[in-house]
Amino acid sequence: MSRKTRRWIFHFFLCLGIVYLKIGGLSSVVALGASIICNKIPGLAPRQRTICQSRPDAIIVIGEGVQMGINECQFQFRHGRWNCSALGERTVFGKELRVGSKEAAFTYAIIAAGVAHAVTAACTQGSLSGCGCDKEKQGFYNQEEGWKWGGCSADVHYGLGFSKVFVDAREIKQNARTLMNLHNNEVGRKVLEKGMRLECKCHGVSGSCTTKTCWTTLPKFRQLGYILKDKYNQAVHVEPVRASRNKRPTFLKIKKPHSYRKPMDTELVYIERSPNYCEADSLTGSMGTQGRLCNKTALQPNSCDLMCCGRGYNTHQYSRVWQCNCKFLWCCYVKCNTCSERTEVYTCK
Ligand SMILES: *[C@@H]1O[C@H](CO)[C@@H](O)[C@H](O)[C@H]1NC(C)=O
Ligand SMILES: *[C@@H]1O[C@H](CO)[C@@H](O)[C@H](O)[C@H]1NC(C)=O
């Protein structure tokens, strides 16, 4: 067969394929697209890939939720030696921290909350198929408090359930780290659930509250960030407990002699102590603090002393120039002076 014929046959079957897909309807085109997209996303666990293929519309929302979690993490830790970045395996959830530290605990919780938040928000906006407003509430009357459910209540249970199925699906290993990750994912989702708020509106002549309708809304994600940051500061060190016969760890307990308490489902947990994040180290996933901006005067985590781990800092001087003392002159122009200021910034050696 000549090369030309082979190419012709190839094109013929390609066209046939496209026609076949068109007859098959939009869904198969979407499904084909989804399987290509889902196979291209790096770091998806096998079960997550299956979910991605069956719900291609959700994968975009999931991505937004993950990004929201990472952004919040970077905001909360912007002054820390660890700034929510890591050297490590690349996954859908960003770079993975290898050490089962408090920092990893925070990351997992905020991302699980982010996915649940984004999915719930998309449902409320009607931009995700298979969900919408919370139907359990619509139209019902709250006898005790005298108001009616109205508007669009956010269906947080759908979002939480989705986060549980998708985010938890990557925990396939049966080890202590898996128990830790699953626990922290749940903490993140609990924080979201507890943060749901009730919003109400009064109806009646001139603002009198003859009838009142209420609906549930999602909390601001920033608020969840602060709550989880507090939980990070109080995270508890745990260790795995193995059932005697098989060696697989089955649950976590507080790591203290003579303590058999399990961690509470409101506490972030970690199984390994954090590295100090001073130097770059690919074993722990630490990026180090070289080149980070620090503050010479503050006694905060971002002070040059703490941030640079005693290595000292470089001083960069520059002058800031801006228009100042502007006056409006009759008529009609504005006259300004030029002001300048010498500023210094410091970066870790
Ligand atoms: C975090 O710190 C690393 C290492 O110094 C730096 O390369 C990175 O840009 C920082 N990331 C953010 C989001 O500030
Ligand atoms: C350094 O910290 C001081 C005191 O907290 C603060 O007033 C100042 O704005 C900070 N400087 C920079 C560059 O962040």
UniProtKB/TrEMBL annotation:
Where, per UniProt, does this protein localize? Secreted, Extracellular space, Extracellular matrix
Q: Which GO terms describe its molecular function?
A: cytokine activity; frizzled binding
Keywords, alphabetical: Developmental protein, Disulfide bond, Extracellular matrix, Glycoprotein, Lipoprotein, Secreted, Wnt signaling pathway
| Main location class | secreted
Read off the InterPro entries from this record: Wnt, Wnt7, Wnt_C, Wnt_CS
* An annotated GO BP: tissue development
Gene Ontology cellular component list: extracellular space
Q: Which SMART domains match?
A: WNT1 (SM00097)
Which family does the similarity line name? Belongs to the Wnt family.
Q: What does this protein do?
A: Ligand for members of the frizzled family of seven transmembrane receptors.
Protein name, as recorded? Protein Wnt
The protein's organism comes out as Sparus aurata
